[in-house]
């Protein structure tokens, strides 16, 4: 019997003036581009997680307004024994404010605002194929109400 479970992650799609909030981060494969994203922590809802991750990685406070999509991808590195599946919840978020001087998460080099064309031109530097996919889905108008996601109070701190 298998004990397989995907890792649950969240990602923030934040657009302002035609540009998307992106992080440049250090990875084993070099500097990569990604949405502000990370893992769901115990005791938080998915919308809480995406707001926290965006703040920690970009020093920007955001508010999730809709679900863009739910995505699944697999990351494999057989030589290192890595085989991880990710279940990613991407949220359309509204930019609220920046917190200048806030220290960013370890590994985050900087936050950038890139147009969809600039992001597409840098596809070789994307952390995963989901980076552009979530932006393309956002551009296509994909938005689902947050009420689609229910978090039972037993899950919250």
Poorly predicted spans: none
Residues in helices, as a percent range: 10-25%
Rg (C-alpha, Å): 15 Å
CATH fold-level label:
Nucleoside Triphosphate Pyrophosphohydrolase
Shape descriptor reads: globular
Describe the structure.
The chain is an alpha+beta fold and 157 residues long. The chain has one domain: Nucleoside Triphosphate Pyrophosphohydrolase. 18% of the residues lie in helices and 44% in strands. The chain has three helices and seven strands. The chain has helices at residues 46-58, 116-121, 130-139, and strands at residues 7-16, 19-27, 30-34, 37-39, 60-77, 82-98, 108-114. Strands 1, 2, 3, 4, 5, 6 and 7 form a seven-stranded mixed sheet that branches. Strand 2 and strand 3 (30-34) form a beta hairpin. The mean pLDDT is 94.
What is the secondary structure topology, with strand pairs?
Blueprint: E1 7-16, E2 19-27, E3 30-34, E4 37-39, H1 46-58, E5 60-77, E6 82-98, E7 108-114, H2 116-121, H3 130-139
Parallel strand pairs: 1-6
Antiparallel strand pairs: 1-2, 1-4, 2-3, 2-7, 5-6
Short account of what is shown:
The protein has 157 residues and is of the alpha+beta class. It contains 3 helices and 7 strands. Strands 1, 2, 3, 4, 5, 6 and 7 form a 7-stranded mixed β-sheet that branches.
Keywords:
157 residues, alpha+beta, Nucleoside Triphosphate Pyrophosphohydrolase, seven-stranded mixed beta sheet, globular, NudJ, magnesium
């Amino acid at each position: 019997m298998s004990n397989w479970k995907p890792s649950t992650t969240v990602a923030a799609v934040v657009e302002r003036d035609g540009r998307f909030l992106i992080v440049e981060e250090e990875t084993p494969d070099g500097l990569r581009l990604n949405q502000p994203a990370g893992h769901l922590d115990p005791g938080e809802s998915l919308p809480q997680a995406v707001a926290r991750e965006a703040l920690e990685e970009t020093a920007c406070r955001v508010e999730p307004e809709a679900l863009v999509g739910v995505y699944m991808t697999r990351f494999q590195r057989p030589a290192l024994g890595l085989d991880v599946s990710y279940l990613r919840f991407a949220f359309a978020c509204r930019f609220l404010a920046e917190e200048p001087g806030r220290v960013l998460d370890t590994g985050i080099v900087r936050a950038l605002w890139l147009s969809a064309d600039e992001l597409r031109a840098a596809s070789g530097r994307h952390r995963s194929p989901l980076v552009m996919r979530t932006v393309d889905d956002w551009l296509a108008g994909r938005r689902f109400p947050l009420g689609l996601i229910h978090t039972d109070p037993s899950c919250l701190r």
